[in-house]
Amino acid sequence: MKHAFAWLMALVLSAPITLAAEGKPMTTEQQKVLETITTMSSAFMAKDIDGVMATYEDTATVMFEPGQPVSDPDTLRAMFTGMSAVDPVFEFGEHEVFIAGDTALHITPWQMSGRAPDGTEIGQSGLSVAVLRRQPDGTWLMVIDNPHGAQLLASQGS
Predict the structure, then answer these.
(1) Is the Cβ–Cβ distance between 92 and 65 less than 8 Å?
(2) Band of the pLDDT at 62, cuts 50, 70, 90?
(3) Which pairing describes strands 68-70 and 103-115: parallel, antiparallel, or unpaired?
(4) Residue 136's pLDDT is what?
(5) Residues 6+ away with beta carbon under 8 Å from 3
(6) How many distinct structural domains can be found in the chain?
(7) Integer CA distances (angstroms), 109 to 82, 106, 118, in order
(8) Superkingdom of this entry's organism (predicted)?
């Protein structure tokens, strides 16, 4: 469950977003991708689980724990609900957004500190990797969400 909390924290991206890959200004479509992430973040901080779920496709897969994908909407909702009691503080590195047709990849390193409901201090970090798909109305929704993108490198000692 400790990684589940980290996953959610990686998505709470409230920092100003001004850079795309290689320090170039973001295009309008890249900004729309990031709007999905920030919408999810705002909904989570407001404990609006319906709003959180609205940023994901119905068949989305989320890695609350490394190597353990969750795709069932009821389980996703329960995980988000359970984590919504924590008020985290986040710091993010630069955001990269790559778009190919109707598919986008969002990547950002993150650090989180917060306090669990029992008062225990929490501190985690990682690399958030999210795949989004452009919808017929032009909005972007998350399809795959993995806040543990650095896990593979860490397991190889890189």
Answers:
(1) no
(2) very high
(3) unpaired
(4) 98
(5) 64, 65, 66, 148
(6) 1
(7) 24, 11, 27
(8) Bacteria
Owning domain of residue 147 = 2-155
Phi, psi (rounded to 5 degrees) for 118: -85, 5
SS3 2: helix
Which carries the bigger pLDDT value, residue 84 or residue 146? 146
Query: What is the DSSP code (8-state) at residue 148?
Result: B
CA distance 149 to 33: 18
β-bridge pairing 89-92 and 96-100: unpaired
Q: Give the tokens for residue 88.
A: 């985290």
155 versus 57: which is more confidently predicted?
Answer: 57
Length of the chain: 158
Structure-token pair, residue 86: 């924590």
Q: Are 11 and 41 contacting, i.e. CB atoms less than 8 angstroms apart?
A: yes
Question: Which amino acid belongs to residue 56?
Answer: Y
The pair of structure tokens assigned to 128 is 């958030």
Mean pLDDT for the stretch of residues 98-124: 89
**What CATH number should be reported for the domain holding residue 11?**
3.10.450.50
Q: Which residue has the higher pLDDT, 39 or 6?
A: 39
